[in-house]
Specification:
Length: about 190
């Protein structure tokens, strides 16, 4: 159930043994979120990665796939801890260095309009016929996850799990490994 927004400036989050005050920011008229920006908080990022690794050990996968930008350090740290996993970053635009990019579009709660999701064709071998773990920092509506699924499936990847530090209160109810829930705020 969303929390009624009454001008609160922060939300207290407890995750992975840490407490942080997250700024509450407007996303649309009548909807606010507690902004979880973990990539500049190394101590918290490392603790969250370690806790997610414990949950991901229950899955057999070959490659970790994440989307730029906030989840990159988290997914990288998980790949580093697990040592044997490949790692692919889905970009949000086609870059000049990409060869034969694979593109899909989707909608994210924090992005106005459609968002591109692009895998460099050079990473095709890390996905084709492989078992995939999608890693993100926050899953909300599932728009990003659904776009990632489509682009991975275009390449013949088999998604075996989805993991995030936080699951934002939303209608997303697919299987998801996450550490804590994060409320949304409405009028």
């Amino acid at each position: 159930m969303p929390i009624r927004y009454e001008g609160q400036k922060t939300y207290e989050l407890k995750v992975a043994g840490f407490t942080r005050q997250l700024p509450i920011l407007p996303v649309t008229d009548g909807l606010w979120i507690a902004a979880f920006i973990s990539y500049t908080d190394i101590e918290l990022l490392n603790a969250c990665a370690q806790e997610l690794v414990e949950r991901l050990k229950n899955y057999d996968f070959d490659t970790i796939v994440t989307v730029e930008a906030k989840a990159i350090p988290l997914a990288y740290k998980i790949a580093e801890i697990m040592r044997t996993k490949d790692f692919v970053i889905v970009r949000k635009d086609v870059k000049a260095y990409m060869q034969d990019p694979i593109v899909d579009v989707g909608q994210s709660i924090t992005t106005a309009g459609e968002q591109k999701y692009v895998i460099d064709g050079n990473d095709r071998g890390k996905i084709e016929g492989k078992r995939i773990a999608i890693v993100d920092d926050v899953v909300s509506t599932g728009g990003t996850v659904e776009a990632l699924k489509r682009v991975i499936e275009k390449l013949g990847g088999n998604i075996v799990c989805i993991a995030a530090v936080l699951k934002e209160e939303s209608p997303y109810n697919e299987p998801l490994e996450y550490l804590e829930e994060l409320p949304i705020f409405t009028r």
